[in-house]
């Protein structure tokens, strides 16, 4: 199997980066469909309008309906086709950006992503996670290329709710452990090749930055302050996690997340919060050494990531209650197949219950 590594065409990060958005988007085209949620669009509109005008860019805004599902993608694709746009710009959180990437693929035009939160690694990936209109995970839509431009204004990130930054750290927390699992099995990464040494190193760097700067970044975000720690964690959540997962691969942590989406009680929780518990479940499943498990528990608790089922709305969940989630996590085509051993739904439920017990014990200690 050949080794493949993929990455966005251009990554721009820093305080006030939105003031340069027109310069970067103009390299892609001059007739733009901008889609995003109301909060996301409101946070960038003034700078975007000014910068687009300075660079001769005509643009149309369209509100994102809230779910990255086939119906919403079809609706926005038709609007883009009617307007004759030659660039897509997605603004907001992961689902808005995933929708923009999918729409751009159907329109065969370049795409730029402008995350207004650092809650997932969606801004950088050549992948859209497709859900049903009710928010249940349905499938991965693998795209032929990464976004042409990723622009992250850390002034905007610092003003977003801190819980979103923490959720992003939960998503990034899985990157190293899933990459390591895939390196053992030589499982294919998202573009279908074997992971590179560079991707594995970036995944490890992502984990190291989380441990070193995560708590300080959370504190800075609570103060709406752009500090070096915040910049490092935004890069870890957005760029390093994106490169690490995509070019190294996913495993049990994300499969557990996907399984948990079948349980309605978890729908109020963010992607990264569920992935964080999925990471702990993966570590129990693979019998990781206790020092590693307690390192992850300590980090997660220090920044407020969930480590128990109760923290995901599943207090007192029985084996039978969790079994449908475990079955979904182990279904054909899921990333659970990338683990270094055969995993059954029964093993997943037991690992989830074991992770929950460890989390409860750690919180009491």
Describe the protein in words.
This protein is of the alpha/beta class and 365 residues long. The chain folds into 2 domains: 11-158, Rossmann fold, CATH 3.40.50; 161-364, Dehydroquinate synthase-like - alpha domain (Dehydroquinate synthase-like, alpha domain, Up-down Bundle), CATH 1.20.1090. The protein contains 13 helices and 8 strands. It has helices at 21-25, 38-54, 70-83, 94-107, 154-159, 162-185, 197-222, 228-248, 252-260, 271-285, 290-303, 319-329, 345-364, and strands at residues 11-14, 31-36, 58-63, 87-92, 111-115, 127-131, 137-142, 149-153. It has a 6-stranded parallel β-sheet with strand order 1-8-5-4-2-3, sandwiched between helices. It has a two-stranded antiparallel ribbon with strand order 6-7. A hairpin with a 5-residue loop joins strand 6 (127-131) and strand 7 (137-142). The chain is globular.
What name does the CATH topology of the largest domain carry?
A: Dehydroquinate synthase-like, alpha domain
Count, helices? 13
Strand numbers in spatial order across the main sheet? 1-8-5-4-2-3
Q: Give the N-terminus to C-terminus distance in angstroms.
A: 47 Å
The CATH class of the largest domain = Mainly Alpha
The total strand number stands at: 8
Task: Classify the helix fraction into a percent range.
Answer: 40-55%
CATH superfamily of the largest domain: Dehydroquinate synthase-like - alpha domain
Primary descriptors:
Dehydroquinate synthase-like, alpha domain; 13 helices; 2 domains; Rossmann fold; two-stranded antiparallel sheet; 6-stranded parallel β-sheet; 365 residues; globular; 54% helix; alpha/beta
């Amino acid at each position: 199997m050949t080794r493949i590594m993929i990455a966005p065409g251009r990554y721009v990060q820093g305080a006030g980066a939105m003031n340069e958005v027109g310069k970067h988007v103009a390299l892609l085209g001059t007739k733009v469909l901008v889609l995003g949620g109301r909060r996301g669009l409101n946070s960038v509109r003034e700078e975007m309008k000014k910068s687009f005008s300075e660079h001769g860019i005509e643009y149309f805004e369209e509100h994102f309906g809230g779910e990255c599902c086939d119906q919403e993608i079809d609706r926005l694709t038709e609007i883009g086709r009617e307007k004759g746009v030659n660039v897509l710009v997605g603004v907001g959180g992961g689902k808005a950006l995933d929708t923009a990437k999918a729409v751009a693929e159907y329109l065969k035009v370049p795409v730029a992503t402008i995350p207004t939160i650092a809650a997932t690694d969606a801004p950088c990936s050549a992948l859209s996670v497709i859900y049903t209109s009710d928010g249940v995970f349905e499938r991965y839509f693998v795209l032929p290329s990464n976004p042409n431009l990723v622009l992250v204004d850390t002034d905007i990130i610092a003003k977003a709710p801190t819980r979103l930054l923490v959720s992003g750290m939960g998503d990034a927390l899985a990157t190293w452990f899933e990459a390591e699992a895939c390196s053992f099995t030589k499982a294919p990464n998202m573009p279908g090749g074997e992971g590179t040494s560079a991707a594995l190193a970036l995944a490890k760097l992502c984990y190291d930055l989380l441990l070193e700067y995560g708590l300080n970044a959370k504190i800075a975000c609570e103060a709406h302050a752009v500090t070096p720690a915040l910049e490092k964690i935004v890069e870890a959540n957005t760029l390093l996690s994106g490169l690490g997962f995509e070019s190294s691969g996913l495993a049990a942590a994300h499969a557990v997340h996907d399984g948990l989406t079948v349980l309605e009680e978890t729908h109020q929780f963010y992607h990264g919060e569920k992935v964080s518990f999925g990471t702990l479940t993966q570590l129990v499943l693979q019998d990781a050494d206790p020092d590693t498990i307690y390192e992850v528990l300590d980090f997660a608790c220090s920044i407020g990531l969930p480590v128990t089922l109760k923290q995901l709305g599943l207090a007192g969940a029985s084996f039978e209650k969790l079994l449908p989630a475990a079955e979904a996590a182990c279904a054909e085509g899921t990333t659970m197949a990338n683990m270094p051993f055969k995993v059954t739904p029964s093993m997943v439920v037991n690992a989830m219950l074991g992770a929950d017990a460890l989390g409860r014990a750690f919180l009491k200690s």
